[in-house]
Amino acid sequence: MPFDLTPRPVRTTDGFLELCAQLVFSAGRSWQAVAPTWPSIRRAFQRFATAEVAAYGPVDRARLVTEGVPAHDGKIAAVIEIAGRLAVIRDEHGSPRRWLEALAPDERAAALRRLPYVGTFGAAALLAVLGLDQENGGPAGPLRTTAFHTVS
Questions:
Q1: Distance from C-alpha of 112 to C-alpha of 118, rounded to nearest angstrom
Q2: What is the pLDDT of residue 149?
Q3: CB 143 within 8 A of CB 127
Q4: For a Cys-Cys bond, which of 20, 79, 108, 140 suits 124, CB 3.0-4.6 Å?
Q5: Residues 30, 87: Cα–Cα separation, whole Å
Q6: What is the pLDDT of residue 2?
Q7: How far is CA 49 from CA 12, 33, 39, 111, 143, in A?
Q8: For residue 71, what are the CA distances in angstroms to 27, 84, 104, 105?
Q9: Distance CA 88, CA 74 (A)
Q10: Is 26 strand, coil or helix?
């Protein structure tokens, strides 16, 4: 079961954070391996409430490991860092989608790749799910020709 690239509305910063977290946790793994654990990951991260996750410190990171989040500390730290960046983006632009829409279409992927663990495929996946790859004629470049079973 590949990562779901179906375009869909992502109405909140929390929803965008969850989408980013799915990419982070599936980096280097198949989505099949991550999907069964997703409900417990989602609970452990307080349903990806951006403000709360952005404020996580060392105690919270340790809690996530003990609650069975199947990832190394680097991935956990990446999700926390992304939450902090998204909180700033939300404050400055109103939402991550508005931030991306304010960028030229050819700048969007590069902006997303500056998030930890979001590489070429991850940026293309985010843009595809958000429906923002349409300016470039459909699914973002690497997704056209690649069997997309891991997102990174």
A1: 7
A2: 36
A3: no
A4: 140
A5: 28
A6: 52
A7: 10, 24, 15, 22, 29
A8: 10, 19, 34, 32
A9: 21
A10: helix
Which helix H or strand E contains 42, and what residues bound it?
helix 38-44
Note every long-range contact of 75-78, with CB atoms under 8 Å and residues 24 or more positions apart, other chains counting. 75/24, 75/25, 75/27, 75/117, 77/116, 78/24, 78/116, 78/117
Residue with tokens 């293309």: 124
Alpha-carbon gap, residue 60 to 56, rounded angstroms: 5
pLDDT for res 33: 86
- pLDDT average per 10 residues of sequence, the chain (152 residues): 70 94 88 87 95 96 84 89 98 95 94 94 90 59 39 34
Which residue in 30, 33, 29, 9 sits closest to 19, CA to CA? 9
